Amino acid sequence: MEGPRVTTSEGPLGVDEVIGETSSTEVIDRDHAKVAGAIYRYTDIAFARGEGVYLYDFEGRRYLDFVAGIATMNVGHCHPAVVEAITDQARTLIHAASHVGYMKPYVELLEAVLAVAPGELRNGKGLLMNSGSEAVETAIKLARYVTNRSVIMAFMDGFHGRSMGALSLTASDALYRHRLAGLFAGVCHVPYPYCYRCPLQHESPETCGLACLNLVQKALETVVPPDDLAGIVVEPIAGEGGYIVPPPGFLQGLREICGRHGALLIADEVQTGLGRTGQMFGMEHWDVVPDVMCLAKPLGGGLPLGAVLARSELVDAWPPAAQGSTFGGNPVACRAGLATLKVVQNEDLLSNAERVGEHIQARFREAQQELPIIGDVRGKGLMVAVELTDMDGSPARDAIKSLVKQMGGKGLALTKCGASSVRIAPPLIITEEQADFGVDVILEVLRQNQW
After folding, report:
1. Residue 94 contacts by C-beta under 8 Å, 6 or more apart in sequence?
2. List of residues 6+ apart from 229 with CB closer than 8 A
3. Could you tell me which of 252, 306, 253, 286 has the C-alpha nearest to residue 139?
4. Of 76, 137, 109, whose CA–CA distance to 330 is shortest?
């Protein structure tokens, strides 16, 4: 790992000044000895601390963070407002459990999030969980209960979590479902309009999106009786599946289908929510208002927190004790989340995400003219994918693995999504100049390597 060393006015920052006696190698060796190998690491970096858009290892090397904790640290690492909120709350009340009594941070966060929610959800209600997986599981339970129907429709290339219920909806990689045939029944998968690699071989986004909508309707005619459909769960932009942006009309079409058949449209905004795409919520790019919305990742400002928002009449139909969580809505996490939301609003991070994201896409589209390995550039806001392809047009699986592993040695933290797409999801506070460093590093490696 040869990332650039951190410097101060007095020179390079030494190991003792960062974290004492610990080294990156020691942390990694201890991890290998005790942590389950099921936890995959994209990089070989051992993180000691973070500040703004940068991460630092135990030797003081600095890395531009193009990952943001997997689209989580929207306001950057250790934002002073978030740190202050966490510290203040930790001195007052760390945990009491929402089942035992009422906690002010819980209701304050829900009030703040509902106030910026789209359409009818602004007058809705919600409840708090610990993660995106829990939020999706909660939405499934709510939809099945209030509709008294059993089937949930989801999409290929979609990712909704790894717990058994959420995993039943996940279909972004068969590996996640390997040897897990005992997932719950009542889930139907249909193709997502991945227009660059249209599953139906259509050549234009318009016909691809329409064809996928037709398959939703076909499934309701041949596989799922409409009276059994509780809801359709969809990511506004398919995240883990490749940052796949749906074509115009697709999400609107799902809204119409759900309305026609009395099913709930459930938006999984775990990765797209709270400013990532340049709008507060991804669905807003298409002016679609879901019945239920799942949130997590950036919601807790770096602490575990998930949420489900829904129309009031839906939540009110759920009896007391129908759902809950011991740690969901933890007051420290809620205070961190409330501070994070205020920073997103007060520092105009939606506009910054849109502007810098467009700049990043423009840089890669320009490079695409000289680099045939760049097959597609797509995204919204600071949710950008650069899909790498082999000469025959197939996913460049070896290239993406090699690229991501090389980034740490060049001062960049990076991950992938889909089969072979560079995933770019930095904190929303990033500047164009900072983003250019990351883009330059990626392009340098693409130009120098022959895969």
Report:
1. 330, 331, 332
2. 149, 151, 153, 220, 261, 263
3. 306
4. 109
**Tokens coding 238:** 């398919």
Tokens of 383: 């949710």
Tokens of 133: 């997986």
Per-residue pLDDT in tens (0 to 9) along the chain, 451 residues = 344 444 333 333 444 444 568 999 999 999 999 999 999 999 999 999 999 999 999 999 999 999 999 999 999 999 999 999 999 999 999 999 999 999 999 999 999 999 999 999 999 999 999 999 999 999 999 999 999 999 999 999 999 999 999 999 999 999 999 998 778 889 999 999 999 998 888 888 888 889 999 999 999 999 999 999 999 999 999 999 999 999 999 999 999 999 999 999 999 999 999 999 999 999 999 999 999 999 999 999 999 999 999 999 999 999 999 999 999 999 999 999 999 999 999 999 999 999 999 999 999 999 999 999 999 999 999 999 999 999 999 999 999 999 999 999 999 999 999 999 999 999 999 999 999 999 999 999 999 986 6
- Options 3.40.980.10, 3.90.1150.10, 3.40.50.1820, 2.120.10.30; CATH for 7-75+348-448 is 3.90.1150.10
CATH says 82-346 is which class? alpha beta
- The token duo for 188 is 């139907």
Nearest-angstrom CA–CA distance, 266 and 299: 18
Q: Which of 246, 240, 287 is nearest to 378 (CA)?
A: 246
12: its two tokens: 């390079």
Domain coordinates in residue numbering, the chain: 7-75+348-448, 82-346
DSSP H helices in 35-131: 68-71, 80-92, 104-115
Distance CA 192, CA 295 (A): 21
Joined together, the tokens standing for residue 122 give 């602004």
Residue 19 phi, psi dihedral angles, 5° rounding: -145, 15
Q: At CA 97, angle to CA 96 and CA 102, rounded to 5?
A: 85
Q: Which residues, including other chains, have CB under 8 Å from residue 404's CB and lie 6 or more apart?
A: 42, 43, 414, 415, 416, 422
Name the token pair of 385. 């994918």
Percent helix, percent strand, percent coil in the chain, to nearest 5:
45, 20, 40
The whole-angstrom separation of Cα 226 and Cα 321 is 29
As given in the structure block, the two tokens for residue 407 are 């980034």
CA distances, 14 to each of 21, 197, 273, 408 (Å): 10, 48, 38, 19
